[in-house]
Amino acid sequence: MALLEFRSPASGGFFMMPETFQGICEVLERLYSESGCWLPEDLPGVIEKLEAAVRREKEMIAEAKARQREQNLKGAPGANPWPDEEEERKEQERVTFSMRVYPLLEMLHAAQKKNVKVMWGVP
User: How many other CB atoms are found less than 10 A from the CB of residue 114?
Assistant: First the structure.
């Protein structure tokens, strides 16, 4: 699969991996397509669904961290009360859905303000 290029008259373009966009399409409950367009009237719904997914992910990450802290404090089997630097580095380097969708959300917000479309396709 080739990279997908996202373009809009409202902002500069960017590229995204098709696998990332497939995940976004799942969140939007739409079929994946290598090219397409969201019209200005589509943007509020797309933005709303993506922002809701970002909120859910952040809540899930916070809950997981809280559970891990609780297990570490209780000394649960397999819990590590003092994670090493390598574990912490891996956690910080993990790329979340929120990070991956950020450039698209920025473009969608800019397009909504200017009432223009957002297009994507294989360059």
Answer: 13
According to DSSP, the β-strands at 11-16 and 36-38 are unpaired
b/e 96-105 (16+ beta carbons within 10 angstroms → b): ebbebbebbe
Residue 27 in any domain: the answer is yes
In angstroms, the first-to-last Cα distance of the chain is 12
- Look up the domain containing 70 and give its range: 4-75+88-98+116-121
The whole-model pTM stands at 0.82
Asked whether 14 and 107 are in contact (CB, 8 A), the reply is yes
Q: Percent of the chain scored above 90 by pLDDT?
A: 70
Count: domains in the chain: 1
